Amino acid sequence: xxxxxxxxxxxxxxxxxxxxxxxxxxxxxxxxxxxxxxxxxxxxxxxxxxxxxxxxxxxxxxxxxxxxxxxxxxxxxxxxxxxxxxxxxxxxxxxxxxxxxxxxxxxxxxxxxxxxxxxxxxxxxxxxxxxxxxxxxxxxxxxxxxxxxxxxxxxxxxxxxxxxxxxxxxxxxxxxxxxxxxxxxxxxxxxxxxxxxxxxxxxxxxxxxxxxxxxxxxxxxxxxxxxxxxxxxxxxxxxxxxxxxxxxxxxxxxxxxxxxxxxxxxxxxxxxxxxxxxxxxxxxxxxxxxxxxxxxxxxxxxxxxxxxxxxxxxxxxxxxxxxxxxxxxxxxxxxxxxxxxxxxxxxxxxxxxxxxxxxxxxxxxxxxxxxxxxxxxxxxxxxxxxxxxxxxxxxxxxxxxxxxxxxxxxxxxxxxxxxxxxxxxxxxxxxxxxxxxxxxxxxxxxx
Length: 447
Prior knowledge:
CATH architecture of the largest domain: 2-Layer Sandwich
Structural class: alpha+beta
Radius of gyration: 28 Å
Oligomer: single chain
Shape: elongated
């Protein structure tokens, strides 16, 4: 039976025998005493061993065992996995948590190579080469505990609000909107495409009568970008709901969902985030600000930045500028940019009833970076076909999708959001490589 105790649980135990297991972080091998910092998935603890450097030929078994333990500790390499049984002692003089374990027996479960391939000052790309070692760092470890808490809170919100979880296929028979940014894969005698998003399939759940659905799953973009916020494979957070009156209903659900996620993260990890990332995580207030895109572009221009494009879009610097405005004027880190021009949106976004050049859609900007796109979808088959033609798409290539709308579908809308981007901005990191377990980009397929 495994009687291992996690480091985080040691402080609550009385003095006495314990077994701990983890990897060696540091060794201080002094003449009369040895100290080992052992770290496991929950924290670090100091191990102490009164050193026995030699014994005479008549030494008993206990003395010989102490010598063997001393020699084993002296030979420990950083990163070796060990199991230790010993005596837990509470001592406020111990800087690391006020506790230590006096080593009784030590078992080297897996010995590490003595030369570690990465260091604290290694480049990000080098750390990605050795990601399994990089992830041992407490800061990196915390990122994925935060991710777990965040996603659990989102799921809790969805489940408590009667959403249905779905898992959509990632192999598609045809291009979702166009063949741009799509990965083609051989599929028996034909060709398949890796899904850019679950968009069409989560919409399929609406005529199916599911009402409200969500998915957390992989998405793929054949985008040769090398920016800090792009990846060729990423985790997408998606939701779609029936009976919306406009994109406002989607935004309301979206902001409530994020508040639930941030609240859970702050409650469980706020102190650790402050310690390891040096930031005080704030839970955003409701409602999030909403600014029509045209108005946002004027605000940006008034701040002295002219977006260097002829179209109606907003560029990354424009996103940073509008975020700065919202933070200064409204004290908020989030802003919905609404009512996007039809030229910037896919054919299935519903047009604005009062201005057919605009769509009932939004981008959500967080700390100067776009993290999500949402919209009300067009559910009328005749309008949908016409809008597809306007975008230069052949309706015949979209037959499987258009069939969803031929047998009745309620008004609906939803969003897709990148998980790694949210975590990157939440923790003030500089790249989604830090907040992605194993990053995939144009030049990275390993590890």
